[in-house]
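Lab manual, section 2.4: Encoding a predicted structure.

Procedure: take the sequence of the chain (164 residues), apply the prediction step described in section 2.3, and record the output as structure tokens. A sample record is shown.
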Amino acid sequence: MGLNPEADQRSREAAREGSEFVELLEVLWEHGRDAVPTGPVSPSQLRVLYTLDREEGINLRMLAEALGSASPSVSRLCDRLQATGFVERAPSPVSRRELELRLTSHGKAYLVDLRTRREEILMATIDAMPAKARRSLLEGLRAFRGAAAGQQDSDGARPLRSTG
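Recorded output:
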């Protein structure tokens, strides 16, 4: 907590609203009228796909670190994703003992489709908001992404990918 109790309270309220927002997104995407099922992948596998999309060509150890998981568990996730045709393992040009992990064209297309469908659901809700609220939302989301990327940098973790 900081030195300003009023600012701390606003941050706490924003965190609570943010948490409720994330839960609402999950419900909209998974159970809403225009639900976006993640199809053949679990949430854990989806995290692998997102990470490989940002960090193409990383090895298993680096992927496990990025996910905060044990290498054997991540290896099994990658085995299943490779079996679905979403991930490929290839020899590293740097070390013969390492394999690089990459999304296949099928895996990339899957993520593009998933993101497109999710954005369409968000657009329907955002379009119903007043213009001023949409501008504030955009400003707040950009600031949040910047703060999250800065926080990850200071923690030594990989920064979030910026998409816009």
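Check your result against the sample. The CA atoms of residues 27 and 35 lie 8 Å apart.
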